[in-house]
Amino acid sequence: xxxxxxxDPVFLTGGKVILRPLLPGDASKEYLSWLNDPYVLRHxxxxxxxxxxxxxxxxxxxxxxSGDVVLAICESDTRRH
Length: 81
Fold this sequence. Notes:
Largest sheet: 4 strands, antiparallel
Radius of gyration: 14 Å
Order of helices and strands: EEEHHE
Structural class: alpha+beta
Strand content: 15-25%
Number of strands: 4
């Protein structure tokens, strides 16, 4: 992967994926299903706990003003998270 400062807000881009900030608009049923799936979370420090779309939306809204860097992994060609 190479650094791509010319593409905002992408931090890194590779042949198949890009890394960009996680945004409030990323709240979706698909993302929520990942957060509630113990298999998806098996190597993270987070344990599956039933979250709602409202919980996810509040979290993403909080991130946007917190100064924390949380990245979304997206397909390079479609930008799909």
